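pls design
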């Protein structure tokens, strides 16, 4: 069972308390952007077997959105952090690098 620590209330919530929100760190394009950029924002998602960054909501808890870094293959959780960030915190990226040398995800490594 997937268990994530909510970075806001500190509870270790299992997946029955959480609602998935899809991929984290999507870049939204504003007015004047190309149709290809907007199409990519709407439809193009990563589907890795390995390190992934996701949005989750502590739906049956504090109700707040947060991000989680985990391995989709092993369910190993590298950490959770605020959804108000544009990229994963360095300590989580360092933890992933220690466990999965050479990993990349979008522009992060
Ligand atoms: Zn919470």
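designed seq:
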């Amino acid at each position: 069972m997937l268990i994530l620590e909510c970075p806001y209330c500190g509870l270790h919530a299992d997946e029955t308390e959480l609602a998935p929100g899809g991929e984290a760190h999507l870049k939204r394009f504003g007015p004047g952007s190309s149709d290809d950029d907007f199409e990519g924002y709407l439809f193009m998602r990563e589907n890795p077997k390995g390190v992934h960054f996701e949005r989750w909501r502590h739906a049956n808890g504090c109700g707040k959105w947060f991000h989680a870094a985990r391995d989709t293959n092993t369910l190993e959780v590298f950490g959770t952090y605020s959804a108000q960030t544009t990229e994963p915190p360095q300590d989580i990226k360092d933890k992933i690098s220690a466990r999965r040398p050479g990993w990349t995800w979008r522009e992060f490594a």
